[in-house]
Amino acid sequence: MEGDIVKLIDEFGLPVIMSIGMGYFIWYIWKFVQDKLLPEIEVMHMALIRVIDQTRMLDQDLIRLQQKVDTVLEYKENEQRRKAKQSSK
Question: The whole model's pTM is what?
Fold first, then answer.
């Protein structure tokens, strides 16, 4: 193995062999990203979209709940005022 590398360096030169090695490294990284990372990123993207949708739904539910609580508090306040008026008469 080492003898083969030495022969290649002797025959083609170190820059050419290093360029070929760098090309292989770039190809390997590109293939890894395409085959392994991009499908996982797509899965995570879909999960993120679901989480965002659920957060929006929860936010809308909180707004509706706050409106209901405000209405109940307003009714309670009106009832207390009415009782205070009746007791003062």
Answer: 0.58
